Amino acid sequence: MDINQLKYFISVAETLNFTEAARRNGLTQPAISHHIGELEKSLGSKLFIRNRRSVTLTKSGQKFLPYAVEMVEIAEKAAFQIKQLEEGFKGHISIAALTTSSAVLSRCLSAFSSKYPDINVDINFTSGRSQVIAMNKAKYDFHFAVKEMVPAGETFDYLVSHRDRLVMAVPSNHPLANKPLDFSQLHNERFVTVTETDGPALYNEIMKVCSARGYKPKITCQYDRAEAVLLSVGAGLGIAIIPEALSKTFYSENVTFKEIPGDDTFRTYVIAWHRDMTNPAAQLFLRVVKELFDDKK
Fold it and tell me: What is the DSSP annotation of 2-19?
C-alpha cells in the first residue's frame, strides 16, 4: 500500500468512474485499475463492484474510504511541514478555532506574523463537539473556543479574548422582522438549531435562554453546525438563536437579527493552551497573545 494507491482509490470513490479517475490523475484507465487491484490485494478485500454500467463501493470500500482520506491528509501535511523546514521556516504552531472566533484569530495572526514571519501556522476550524474532542486529545497548540469547552482540572490554561452574545435570527421577510421581540408570540414558530450532540455548549445555552423566558421552541430542524442554522433561517425554514458573531462572518443578507435583552445571552470566549507546552514557536505565539489580551480577566 502506498500514498498514490490511496489517492487513486479516493478518486475512483469520488467519481465512481475508473476512466474519469484516470483522467484526473494523468493515467490510463488500465493503470488505475492495476493500482486499485494492488491495493485490494494488500488489504485482502475487494473495494469496488464493477460491471458494464456502474461502479459502486463495497462495504469494505465504504469502511476504508475515511481512513484513506485521513492517511493521505496526514502524509501531505507531513510532506508540507518538511518542505517548510527545508525552505527555512523556523517553527510551526497548530490552532483549532470556532468560526465565531474568526475576528480575534485574525487579529492574533496579524500581530504574530509581523513579528515572526518565518513560523508556519496551521489553522483548523472546528464545531463545538470537535473542539472539545480536540482539546481532550491534545492535538493542537492553541484553542480559540468558548470558556465552557475548556476541560476542568489543571491541564489547560486560558485567557479571555472577548465576549459575544446570542441573538434572535429571523427571515427578513417574516412578520416578526419589523416587530419588537416578544417570546410569548413565538410558540408556533418553526425553530432551527444545532444538535445537542454536535454543539452541546451552544445548544444548552440556547435552551437556557428560552427557558428563562418561558419559551419552549418548536424545533423542526437541527444541524451539526451553527453556520447551517443561519443558512436555513435565510432560506425561510424557521427562526433561531445564534451567536451574533456569525452574522458578521457568514452570508446573512436575508436574515434580520434582534437583540435578546439580559445578561444570560452573553458568551465568554477564550484562547486556551496546555500548561505543559514545550513547543518554542507556540511559546512565542502565547507571548503575543498575552500582549493583546492579558488585561481581560
Answer: -HHHHHHHHHHHHHS-HH
User: What is the SS3 assignment for 184?
Assistant: helix
CA-CA distances (angstroms) from residue 87 to 80, 90, 119, 235? 10, 9, 11, 47
SS3 string, 216-254, reads: CCEEEEEECCHHHHHHHHHCCCCEEEEECHHHHHCCCCC
Is the model more confident about 47 or about 134? 47
> What distance in Å separates the CA atoms of residue 188 and residue 225, rounded to the nearest whole number?
24
E-strand ranges in the chain read: 48-50, 55-57, 92-98, 120-126, 142-146, 156-171, 190-194, 218-223, 240-243, 255-259, 266-274
| pLDDT mean over 206-220 | 95
Note the pLDDT tens digit of each residue in 238-266.
Answer: 999 999 988 877 767 789 999 999 999 99
Q: Report which of 174, 157, 196 is spatially closest to residue 255, judged by C-alpha positions.
A: 174
pLDDT category, 134, cuts 50, 70, 90? confident
d(CA 146, CA 143) in angstroms, rounded, equals 9
**Model pTM score:** 0.68
Strands 255-259 and 156-171: antiparallel
- The SS3 call for residue 100 is helix
CB 220 within 8 A of CB 190: yes
Which bin fits 88, alpha (ψ -120 to 50), beta or left (φ > 0)?
left
pLDDT digits (tens, 9 = 90+) for 10-59: 999 999 999 999 999 999 999 999 999 999 999 999 999 988 888 999 99
- 126 closest CA partner among 20, 276, 227: 227
Identity at 51, one-letter amino acid code: N
